[in-house]
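<instruction>
Derive structure tokens from the sequence
<data>
Labelled lines for chain and fold
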Amino acid sequence: LKSLKAGKTQPRTAYEHLLLADTYYLDPSRATFESALAANTKAVELAPDHVISSAMLSVLHVDGYLAGLDGLTSDEFMLNKGYRIATETVRRFPDSADANFAVCMAQFARGRYDEACTRGQMAIDLNPDNVLIKSDYWFFRALHGDWDRAIAELDKVGQCSTENLRHIEKIKAIDAYRVGKFETALDLFEQAYSPLDLLANLHILMC
């Protein structure tokens, strides 16, 4: 991966292109987003039947929209494209947890809460061991108002895996912040802190 990121080795396989695309989340910016989008698009071209490539391309478009990285396009262009990719992916791979979760993420962003929840639960049922899907799903459920249940479910995720503890502490911190428990929020955000986490850094400053 280091040689790919440094440009010393050119990606040749869909998997290598996906590795490059995923680095956007380690260093989010317009430049890394555009590189990730190009890499993920190439991955889909190289392996059109690889469901994770298509699902990830959908989620990347949605994340780009949420992060305000549409550039000069209309406000919802990126979101609508992500949704179209997700619906086509789930049409081709209806039993894929990743495809269903891509639709879930797009529908959360589009304000279609009921279908987002339905698709998210389907994704969890299809792959109950996928910690990332569970933590992301309940993270967005919390942000859409289902705080108590989401935090309870995230605690269960944290008991099974330490992989996303920072994610869990972050949502607990937002919950504390929104009800005015600023010292608790600050403590939790500092536990969830990473230099590249813009959300945590912003709330630390606000606390």
